[in-house]
From TrEMBL:
Keywords, ordered alphabetically: Membrane, Transmembrane, Transmembrane helix
Protein name: Probable phosphatase
The keyword Methyltransferase is annotated on this UniProt entry: no
Organism: Psychrobacter arcticus (strain DSM 17307 / VKM B-2377 / 273-4)
Highest taxon, organism lineage: Bacteria
Keyword Transmembrane helix belongs to the record: yes
Sequence intervals crossing the membrane: 39-62
Cross-referenced InterPro entries: PhoX, TAT_signal
Alphabetical list of Pfam families matching this protein: PhoX
Length: 733
């Protein structure tokens, strides 16, 4: 793991927990009994032998009727071509548990490190130095730190081509920084106990500048190697670009121009500087990149200013973790001496304390300009990132669209990754037109600036509801005493507080979402939650049913699970659904918790990254700390069935719930294990299925270091078959 001094917390281990509501209690009184009829319907055997593009599969709607869900995954910008059959069974040899310093991939495959932290995207700047002495400014043209969500955009003739594999733009997030391994000085702070609470530790200007530039997004042109195996970066490509935490971004949608977004930088409330803590990522149906702002809380500080704010807005800040005298996490970007700033407000803009006469005089609202799904057109270097406020403000993990259909709204699913936070979806007002593929940010304006944000309620009976977060509906008005909602801008900026009001279900940290191209069912990883069944406001529930003690620690859901649902009638705009738990993660020898019957070949813990490839194979990545004595984080391949294909079960906490069909060596297998200390995250496949890219964050030891060097580096891993065939080719034999 990353070296820490006692001042430093690791961002990936810090999980915010700001939900004070007891929404789940409201849920539990609705019903504790599972709907028997829906359980009896299970076991329809749709798990295998289903072909993408073949006859429609049958899904089950929440009202109890069966209805066809057509395979529509190929209708939009999804890169899909050639043989779209899904394997019936996984035939590669499972990768064994490993805690080695190196990575391991299934036999017959090759895994190579590419684009590590610091890699220059242009000529004329030095290569990364192991002593970390390259300048802070140079990172505007280098790969950033902690590579995360990404997407491969096929390119032909200078434009996006969903089917092009020879050449493409690999676009990826740089989520956060490992401060101690980034600066030549290590994690260096000056202590001053006489300063105001949020300034008692001060950082160096150059370190903060370097960190700001190591966040954001990288756009890198890749071309296939001359031997046809894998890719290499096109250095100096006109597309190569870094977007960082200091790049100007546009705020769009219902909140743009609101008083809540007005700052000294833009008193009109339409622009902000920087995109931050970009975690999961995805494609839009029209071919742009959707990145997410997750743990933006950590780079802000808040002093003492409650008396300057309305009680509602004070609560709104606290609901996102920003209480008074909050110094932020270890980053302390607001703390370097102002005399070292190169541009106005370079550091002070990270301090959200209301100190001026009005919002136009300070950065009290800087915090409100982060936490959005942000759209980037990688093919238009001159374009600004667009923060899409209509999709709500929270710790966004990723954003996955449902298969689009001509004339129907476009639907996006999203999770808020903090303990006890919620799952959301956005339904566009505009209806889909295939003519918008390739439409860039203009298409984004059409689909992402106007629509309805919903939050999920998972009832105990295996059914669920979507509640609209619309001002004036569902109690979202000034009558709400904790945070009176005066307009839709307040509903969206304080989406968590709005979701509290409508009784949303507190989940075990919703991470990535992915929609099956075969069944249209939606899958979400719930990575873990140490407070489940521990804190009174987070009792076990059917959708979050485990809380257990492994070796004397407090109870809680240590290993996580994956939930899924089928929208009523197969309609993604529907307001009800039927759900079950696809898979419980657990060490295979933890028998009381191993409810999905995992074995040595497929057991895992803390699912996080999640990706259905266009053939319907589900790839599961882990970000774990609970099972890492046995195995480092990993990537598994899986062939899921559908909601209701399993049984009713009772957890060790005495909670009844529905679990999907058991795991076996045919339907889920470990494909890759990362180096010790890392998280495996971010995943994309080339349109010809021959190359799989994944990312490795915060590796330990010297993984990713230059030859002879000692500083480990986050990097992308490029996986190909040794024989050049498609990924999982052996499973089709
Ligand atoms: Fe950035 Fe929730 O992981
Ligand atoms: Ca994650
Ligand atoms: Ca995680």
């Amino acid at each position: 793991m990353t070296l820490l001094n006692n001042k430093q917390q690791l961002a990936h281990e810090v999980v915010e927990n700001s939900n004070p509501t007891n929404n789940i209690d409201f849920q539990t009184i609705i019903s504790r009994r599972l709907n028997r009829r829906s359980i009896l319907k299970g076991g329809t055997g749709l798990t295998a032998a289903a072909f993408f593009g073949a006859l429609p599969l049958v899904g089950y709607s929440a009202d109890g009727d069966s209805s066809p869900i057509k395979n529509k995954g190929n209708a939009a910008a999804i890169p899909a071509q050639g043989n779209l059959k899904r394997p019936e069974t996984l035939k590669f040899t499972a990768v064994a548990h490993s805690t080695a310093e190196t990575m391991s991939v299934a036999a017959g495959y090759k895994a190579e490190i590419i684009l590590p932290l610091g890699t220059p995207l242009i000529s004329g700047i030095d290569d990364w130095k192991d002593n970390r002495e390259q300048s802070a400014e140079s990172f505007e043209w280098r790969m950033g730190d902690n590579h995360d969500g990404m997407w491969f955009f096929g390119k032909k003739g200078g434009a996006y081509d969903a089917k092009a594999s020879e050449n493409g733009l690999l676009v990826m997030n740089h989520e956060y920084v490992n401060s101690a391994e980034l600066s030549p000085f290590g994690y260096d702070v000056k202590e001053d106990n006489n300063a105001a609470p949020i300034f008692q530790s001060r950082r160096r200007a150059s370190d903060v500048r370097r960190e700001v530039n190591c966040h954001g997004v990288a756009v890198v042109e890749m071309k296939r190697r001359t031997d046809g195996m894998g890719y290499e970066m096109v250095r100096d490509s006109k597309y190569n670009r870094r977007i960082t935490s200091s790049t100007t971004a546009q705020l769009t949608g219902p909140v743009a121009g609101s008083d809540l977004l007005k700052t000294k930088f833009d008193p009109t409330g339409f622009q902000t500087r920087g995109i931050n803590n970009n975690c999961g990522a995805g494609l839009s149906p029209w071919g742009t990149y959707l990145t997410t702002e997750e743990n933006f809380l950590g780079v802000f500080a808040r002093g003492q200013d409650a008396s300057q704010l309305s009680a509602g807005h004070n609560y709104g800040r606290e609901r996102y973790g920003a209480t008074e005298n909050f110094p932020g996490w270890e980053y302390l970007w607001h703390t370097p001496d102002a005399k070292d700033a190169k541009i106005a407000d370079e550091f002070s803009r990270w301090d959200m304390t209301a100190v001026g006469a009005s919002a136009a005089d300070d950065y009290r609202n800087g915090f409100n300009t982060f936490g959005y799904i942000t759209e980037i057109d990688p093919f238009d270097k001159s374009s600004m990132p667009q923060k899409r406020t209509a999709l709500g403000r929270f710790a966004h993990e990723n954003c996955a669209y449902a298969p689009v259909e001509q004339g129907k709204p476009v639907v996006f699913y999203m999770g808020d990754d903090a303990r006890g936070e919620y799952i959301y979806k956005f339904v566009s007002k505009a209806t889909w037109s295939n003519a918008d593929i390739g439409g860039g940010l203009k298409a984004g304006d059409k689909y992402l600036n106007d629509g309805t944000l919903y939050v999920a309620i998972f009832n105990e009976n295996g059914r669920g509801k979507w509640k609209a977060l619309v001002h004036g509906q569902n109690g979202l008005d000034v009558s709400n005493t904790v945070l009176p909602f005066h307009g839709q801008d307040e509903v969206l900026v304080f989406a968590r507080a709005a979701a509290d009001v409508v009784g949303a279900t507190k989940m075990d940290r919703p991470e990535w979402v992915s929609v099956s191209p075969m069944t249209g069912e939606v899958y979400v990883t719930l990575t873990n939650n140490k407070y489940r069944g521990v804190r009174d406001d987070q009792p076990v529930s059917a959708a979050n049913p485990r809380s257990y003690d492994t070796g004397g620690k407090a109870l809680g859901n240590d290993n996580g699970h994956i939930i899924r649902w089928a929208e009523a009638g197969g309609d993604h705009a529907a307001t009800s659904f039927e759900w079950d738990i696809y898979l419980f993660a657990a060490p295979s020898d933890l028998s009381a918790e191993n409810l999905s019957q995992l074995n040595d070949n497929n057991d895992f813990s803390s699912p996080d990254g999640l990706y259905f490839d266009p053939r319907g194979v589900l790839w599961i990545q882990t970000d774990d700390g609970a099972y890492t004595d046995t195995s480092s984080c990993m990537l598994l391949a899986a062939l899921p069935g559908n909601v209701s294909d399993g049984t009713l079960t009772t957890t060790s906490a005495g909670q009844k719930t529905r679990v999907g069909m058991p795991a076996n060596n045919d339907n889920i297998k470990r494909f890759f294990v990362g180096p010790a200390g890392c998280e495996v995250t971010g995943i994309t496949m080339t349109p010809d299925f021959k190359t799989l890219f994944i990312n490795i964050q915060h590796p330990g030891n010297t993984w990713g270091a230059v030859a002879g060097g000692s500083t480990p580096r986050s990097a992308t891993v490029m996986i190909t078959r040794e024989d050049g065939d498609v990924i999982l080719a052996e499973s089709f034999v």
